[in-house]
Specification:
The chain is built from eleven helices and eight strands. By secondary structure, it is an alpha/beta fold. It is globular, with a radius of gyration of 22 Å.
Length: 355
């Protein structure tokens, strides 16, 4: 990559005094951000993780005086046990980490290789987690120390939502506030309708359908839910999910009605976006749709919501209602088509910064 500054690499401070601190050569950084993961599934790692996650005002915006006593005294005395059991059931015991961590590392490694092949070693690729480790602040610090004077920040959420993309951006801004030499930053917008992202989704469906003996009666696109109130307050997430389902159906060449859009992971007393996946799959079974497939387009990597919730609670609801065949289509993860889509998105956002 051609140096975008007018300072020639390591010799750019040749006229500085002898006691001047060393300065790394200028680089550009790409920082991927995912939701996060507990460090372990025992009580205290789970409690720390859940406390950070459920204390985020972007996630739960109830008044602190009302929410925090309930969270700290009641919810966090019980939920770490149940959530920990769920994480234990999907844990990568060989590497002692959650599947989300394993997959995010694999995505980062593939993107790092692709970026180096295209742009050279002047672009640094790292990842951080909004909740848990590695923290956004620690990775930003490391990138600045490595010479990153410009950072492209990519929240790994195809769809925008205040509780995902926005809170990841918030955390980046908090980290930048602590830097003496603050790098320039570009935020990558949502890519829910990017042609290569849609193509990658369609290919994953075609592979899954080719591997089973009989075609499912319906494909359920299950997206992470949010309170309906957020939609009414202006969050575009619901509309973007609907468009992704439509574009996926068109890419597959299917007729209208071939894909149902639903929402999962309901939490708390409020009404959330409907239909709820767990209820909808049961209704499909009762209506005679005995064979279904489920895909999760809003997740860039398989995680607790897909590996445990969809393949556990949601599958059980379908089978209990009379369903006979349940096919889960994995997230795009580190599939080459997904990496190609992310590279295209990054290329658009690196324009003008790299040759």
């Amino acid at each position: 990559m051609k140096d975008q500054t007018d300072r020639p690499g390591e010799g750019r401070l040749a006229h500085a005094p002898a006691d001047h601190p060393p300065v790394a050569r200028p680089r550009i950084g790409i920082l991927l951000a995912n939701l996060g993961t507990p460090d372990g599934y025992d009580f205290w790692p789970m409690r720390r993780y859940l406390s950070e996650f459920l204390s985020d005002k972007r996630v739960i915006d109830y008044p602190v005086w009302k929410w925090q006593p309930l969270l700290q005294l009641i919810i966090l005395s019980k939920r770490p046990f149940s959530s920990g059991a769920n994480y234990k059931s999907i844990w990568n015991h060989e590497l002692n980490e959650s599947p989300l961590m394993t997959i995010t590392k694999a995505q980062t490694a593939k993107l790092r290789t692709a970026v180096e092949e295209r742009y050279g070693d002047g672009v640094m690729v790292e990842f951080c987690m909004r909740y848990g480790n590695p923290s956004t602040e620690s990775v930003v610090r490391r990138m600045v120390e490595a010479g990153c004077e410009k950072i492209v920040f990519l929240p790994l959420y195809p769809h925008y939502a205040g509780a995902t993309s926005a809170t990841a951006n918030d955390q980046l801004f908090r980290a930048l506030m602590k830097e003496k030499r603050q790098p320039a930053a570009r935020i990558v917008p949502e890519y829910f309708d990017h042609p290569l992202y849609i193509k990658a989704l369609a290919q994953s469906v075609e592979r899954a359908y080719a591997a089973i003996d009989r075609r499912p009666d319906v494909l359920v696109a299950s997206y992470h839910g949010m309170p309906k109130r957020y939609l009414l307050e202006g969050d575009p997430y619901h509309c973007q999910c609907q468009k992704t389902s439509r574009l996926l159906r068109e890419a597959l060449g299917w007729d209208k009605g071939a894909i149902d859009t639903t929402f999962q992971s309901v939490f708390g007393p409020e009404e959330w976006l409907r239909p709820y996946t767990v209820e909808h799959v049961a209704e499909l079974a009762k209506a005679g749709k005995k064979r279904i497939a489920v895909i999760s387009p809003a997740f860039s990597a398989d995680c607790i919501e897909t590996l445990e919730e969809i393949q556990g609670e949601i599958r059980e609801a379908f089978e209990h209602a009379g369903g006979e065949s349940f096919t889960y289509i994995p997230c795009l993860n580190d599939d080459d088509a997904h990496i190609a889509a992310l590279m295209a998105v990054l290329g658009d956002n690196l324009a003008g910064w790299v040759a």
